[in-house]
């Protein structure tokens, strides 16, 4: 694959007056982002050195050679991003901008710090993955509040009218939505819930109350949120301060009949306490993330009737990958167009 990189670089050196873009390695993920339309979009405004399909990490010396004369970096995801260090960029000396198509926390947090330390402007263009996750969140909230999963199971199980309780379902617009974490995804979730007319409350100790109010969200304590929300949606990142933040005590605060949605990280929940509380049948859970992935075949989540599970696909669709790449390419094009 490194030979392919060198060949592409040789071709790029012959073109003058257009930006030179380097695509760092993402291995087998590359075709998910770069379909023929996106390949044409990239080459319509830039010359290209692509290591996209490379699977093995290059040495710093190889990266310096590959990045020779490069003006911008296309970072399709976090694989390979931290390999482009501050030292590599300073040795190259020409890179001005990097566009991130699909933000991967583990790869892009260190990469962004290194790139900015080298004076490179970093553009986060990963809005499509946020929108995809929020679409899943809103969809599962509707499934939960309207009790559509239970009605489906009842009818398929032979019930004529899903009685008793056929008219006990709620309405999203009449619900209180509790958002735990009002960062990137939580903010968009608030914006998508608001048109339904739902009451929005939030817990985020790092967000000033005026900022939350601008989102249409009233900040409350964690206990108040869990005791009053009809729908609780988790959007905190996994940190030392948030791991296991919902344990036996906090899960006991959830109101009966609540809908708990987790598209963030399983580490936010104490799994042992979570399973014990789910077995009580007091509330329903919609989960896309798990401590062990893929979810073991004998895991209790697979058999609990009040748990709806999906295989970590809230933000994982073909359209999302291509949209992320397309937006990053458009941002790079606009940057160089001035």
Automatic annotation (TrEMBL):
Enzyme Commission (EC) number: 1.1.1.95
GO molecular function, a single term: NAD binding
Family assignment from sequence similarity: Belongs to the D-isomer specific 2-hydroxyacid dehydrogenase family.
Organism: uncultured Thermomicrobiales bacterium
A Pfam entry, by short name: 2-Hacid_dh_C
Name this polypeptide is given: D-3-phosphoglycerate dehydrogenase
Keywords: NAD, Oxidoreductase
CDD domains given in the database record: 2-Hacid_dh_8
Keyword Methyltransferase belongs to the record: no
Domain D-isomer specific 2-hydroxyacid dehydrogenase NAD-binding intervals: 141-314
Top-level division of the source organism's lineage: Bacteria
